[in-house]
Specification:
Layout: E1 13-19, E2 25-31, E3 36-40, E4 45-47, H1 63-66, H2 89-116, H3 124-150, H4 173-202, H5 206-237, H6 241-253
Antiparallel strand pairs: 1-2, 2-3, 3-4
Helix pairs in contact: 2-3, 2-4, 3-6, 4-5, 5-6
Domain Ferritin-like diiron: 85-238
Subcellular location: Plastid, Chloroplast
Binding site for Fe cation: 102, 137, 140, 186, 220
């Protein structure tokens, strides 16, 4: 069976001659398409496909064309972030609100530290616990500020509410009352963090959602569990000698340990 010769008349070619077994002549036609075609002059044409330079998917990346898109243009305004990309205004505002939450809670804990450090209260373990808690909340606020700058947002600090200076309760005493207040604050903070995560999801910002999940949510529920245990123990020991012992253990066990 004979195969019809392939027409390459429209392609610029170069011809090379050779001898094949059986006495026939073989010429190799090299076209501009890099498709070598071998023609045998006894009427049989044998061709082999060359390298295909087109992309398999049919899509070729043209970076210098794609960076011309408006949303990839580098701004010239002096007060506009160069790094900002796909960062919604709602996300920026929510981060600033959470910064304010963290600073407010830190301020309350700092007031508790000052209260328990008084000479007529002298619960040094509680003073240490609330001082460390205040510093931790401030670090949370600073981490949010760094994230805001990372994404090209602008940090806008809001006013902080003045906390009380007295934490004595006639029935519960000061230690139990302050710890219950701390638990309520931690639950409120957790609620605010969940709202922050929701804003990230609604605005299709997976990086922000991952940031909230990784840096805050797990740590927050662990803090809630720990303070809940402290409250249970304080309710058991009462306001007498047991409270003094609880405070000593809290002082020496550190912020991450369990009091009893």
């Amino acid at each position: 069976m004979l195969v019809k010769p392939l027409s390459v008349s429209s392609l610029p070619v170069s011809r090379r001659w050779g001898v094949v077994p059986g006495g026939g002549r073989l010429s190799t036609l090299s076209a501009a398409t890099s498709l070598p075609v071998k023609r045998r002059f006894d009427g049989l044409v044998v061709s082999a496909a060359g390298g295909n330079t087109s992309a398999v998917t049919g899509v070729i990346f043209h970076p210098f064309e794609e960076i011309k898109k408006e949303d990839l243009a580098v701004p010239f305004a002096p007060n506009v972030s160069l790094a900002r990309q796909f960062y919604a205004d709602d996300c920026e505002a929510a981060i600033n609100e959470q910064i304010n939450v963290e600073y407010n809670v830190s301020y309350v804990y700092h007031a508790m530290f000052a209260y328990f450090d008084r000479d007529n209260i002298a619960l040094k373990g509680h003073a240490k616990f609330f001082k460390e808690s205040s510093e931790e909340e401030r670090e949370h606020a600073e981490k949010l500020m760094k994230f805001q700058n990372l994404r090209g947002g602008r940090v806008r600090l809001h006013s902080v509410t003045s906390p009380p200076s007295e934490f004595y309760h006639p029935d519960k005493g000061d230690a139990l009352y302050a710890m219950e207040l701390a638990l309520s604050l931690e639950k409120l903070t957790n609620e605010k963090l969940l709202c922050l995560h929701k804003v990230a999801v609604e605005n299709n910002d997976p990086q922000m959602a991952d940031f909230v999940e990784t840096e805050y949510l797990t740590e927050q529920v662990e803090a809630i569990k720990k303070i809940a245990e402290y409250i249970t123990q304080l309710r058991m020991v009462g306001k007498g000698h047991g409270l003094w012992h609880f405070d000593k253990v809290l002082l020496h066990d550190g912020h991450d340990g369990h009091a009893l």
